[in-house]
Write a structure and sequence with these properties.
By secondary structure, this protein is of the alpha+beta class. Helices cover 40% and strands 16% of the residues. The protein contains 15 helices and 12 strands. The strands form 5 sheets. The chain has a 3-stranded antiparallel β-sheet, with no helix packed on it. The chain has a 3-stranded antiparallel β-sheet with strand order 6-9-10. The N terminus and C terminus are likely disordered. The structure holds zinc ion (2 copies). One zinc ion binds next to loops.
Length: 345
């Protein structure tokens, strides 16, 4: 049977030290440095929905002009978007996905899957169809080598050569801190979305620590090395959003464990897709930081997103939107409400 190293064990201090390194030097962390704020994620998502023009992007995301300009410039710099003229006026530019940007599609689809199942966010198409087979799209992440669906219990990990060079990278590339998620810049923040988890550095690290099987406050704190008020705040948010739950493991004094709920584990495919994208498109100068192995076939983890019906690799151009996109009553398409949206049940 597969190794269960990743979950359900009491970590030793050395493990926590390793996890701490992996959280910072892993492929997901590198990918998040490239697109790791909520605006960039929203822009990538909208790009796959065919939104290309500045004003349309502004209306959909609710970002201010300044924020939007900065994020678009950054995505162009990172090589995910390129500018393309449209219309008659030469100054009119739209933003299109490069090959690197298109390769982000599995990540965007995993976001859509999670939102569709758990988030209930407006503005997303309710149903996607795989035109190649004509079925409703129900994607799954599969191993390139053995075609099996990726189950978290079937992965083992160890640090790669890039992990030991983490300190070098840190001194040269300053990590951009994402803005506090409570400051909405016009966007509705009363609901918790996929981008709130991954678009906030500390939240992403916290969920990562839970993926690695750290459940106790002290262990999580040691692996993240962040201020306790930030950690307490992020735990509170994740609890409120139903991404994690608390379990009392000691009564005197009361001590809690934090565990991912089904909704929390629902972020795992997304994270695997990020790992794959980071591995392929943002290679580390000293080699991979985190080496994941698919234990059933004993190959290094290399994944693809396939259609659950026909098992073919999903390409963006073979996916069609069906059904009306949900918008709150009385709101025009293109706007983002400032009022709390009704959570879909
Ligand atoms: Zn495999
Ligand atoms: Zn299909």
């Amino acid at each position: 049977m597969a190794s269960k190293k990743v979950v359900r064990r009491t970590p030793r201090p050395a493990d926590i030290e390793t996890i701490r390194t992996l959280l910072r030097a892993g492929e997901v962390a590198r990918a998040l440095q490239s697109v790791g704020d909520r605006w960039s994620f929203l822009l990538m998502r909208d790009a796959f929905l065919g939104v290309r023009r500045f004003e349309d992007l502004r209306r959909r995301t609710g970002a201010s002009r300044g924020t939007l300009t900065a994020r678009l410039n950054s995505l162009v710099e990172q090589g995910l978007f390129y500018r393309s003229p449209y219309g008659n006026a030469p100054s009119r530019l739209e933003y299109r996905l490069t090959e690197k940007g298109l390769a982000f599609y599995p990540v965007a689809l995993c976001m859509w899957m999670w939102e569709n199942r758990w988030g209930g966010e407006f503005g997303l198409p309710p149903r996607l169809v795989h035109t190649r087979c004509g079925n409703t799209l129900n994607p799954r992440i599969a191993c390139v080598h053995c075609d099996a669906s990726i189950d978290r219990r079937d992965l083992s990990y160890r640090p790669g050569p890039g992990a030991t060079h983490y300190g070098d990278q840190q001194s040269t590339t300053r990590r951009r801190e994402s803005p506090a998620i409570s400051r909405g810049d016009g966007i509705d923040t009363t609901m918790f979305h996929c981008v709130d988890t991954v678009g906030d550095r500390w939240t992403a690290l916290l969920v990562g620590a839970l993926f690695f099987g750290l459940n106790r406050y002290d262990d999580i704190n040691a692996s993240l090395g962040i201020a306790t008020n930030i950690l307490a705040d992020r735990l509170r948010r994740l609890l409120a959003a139903g991404v994690i739950e608390q379990h009392l493991y000691q009564e005197h004094p009361p001590r809690y464990e934090y565990r991912l709920t089904k909704k929390g584990w629902g972020l795992f495919p997304f994270t695997v897709a990020m790992h794959e994208w980071g591995t392929q498109w943002i290679p580390a100068p000293h080699g991979p930081g985190l080496k994941l192995r698919h234990t059933p076939c004993n190959h290094r983890l290399h994944t693809k997103l396939v259609c659950g019906s026909c098992n073919q690799v999903i390409e963006a151009r073979e996916v069609e939107i069906r059904g009306a996109t949900r918008w709150p009553a009385g709101q025009r398409r293109g706007g983002q409400g400032k009022k709390p949206l009704v959570r879909r049940t």
